[in-house]
Task: inverse folding
């Protein structure tokens, strides 16, 4: 009975404050939803943000949290990564990660942005990827994962934190195009799903 009373009081407080509890199964999902509601951070168009409640996520699955081996490629050349606009992003293959998923072994390139690029973060690694959910559950052009340069030769990749490029929400953004070699030949049912834009 005490728990019911406490719960009822909590609902009253939330209602009076005009604030709703953040939606999301994990802290990362809740932060994503909070950022998308925030006009100063959200990539959404005004008409989409007006009715925004939460992003559509695949259900969290620990099987998609993988420990990968990082093979650094220190002599790789800088190149111009194409984007969805005329802009190019100066990148290089920082290394190749190898991991197991559903009993199969996969390899993906992880990229490092040139320190000369505006806003470049020294320890940041960029993991764009394609998989068999693209266009059938997730954004057709692939998704991204943010990583940090590890001290050792292993790096944890959490596909539950895979997110859509901002251009999936608003064409004004310039988004790196996922290289074809970063294709994972399976369905990665984790992370953010495709976004349904408002028709109004």
Result:
């Amino acid at each position: 009975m005490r728990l019911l009373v406490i719960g009822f009081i909590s609902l009253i407080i939330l209602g009076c404050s005009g604030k709703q509890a953040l939606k999301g199964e994990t802290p990362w999902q809740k932060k994503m939803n909070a950022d998308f509601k925030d006009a100063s951070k959200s990539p959404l168009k005004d008409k989409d943000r007006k009715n925004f409640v939460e992003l559509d996520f695949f259900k969290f699955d620990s099987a998609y949290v993988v420990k990968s081996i990082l093979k650094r490629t220190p002599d790789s050349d800088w190149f111009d990564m194409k984007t969805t606009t005329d802009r190019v992003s100066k990148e290089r293959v920082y290394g190749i990660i190898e991991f197991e998923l559903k009993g199969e072994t996969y390899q993906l390139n992880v990229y490092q942005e040139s320190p000369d690029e505006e806003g470049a973060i020294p320890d940041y690694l960029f993991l764009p990827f394609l998989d068999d959910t693209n266009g059938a559950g997730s954004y057709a052009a692939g998704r991204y994962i943010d990583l940090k340069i590890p001290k050792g030769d292993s790096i944890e990749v959490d596909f539950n934190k895979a997110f859509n490029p901002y251009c999936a929400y608003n064409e004004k953004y310039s988004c790196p195009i996922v290289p074809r070699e970063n294709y994972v030949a399976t369905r990665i049912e984790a992370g953010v799903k495709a976004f349904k834009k408002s028709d109004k």
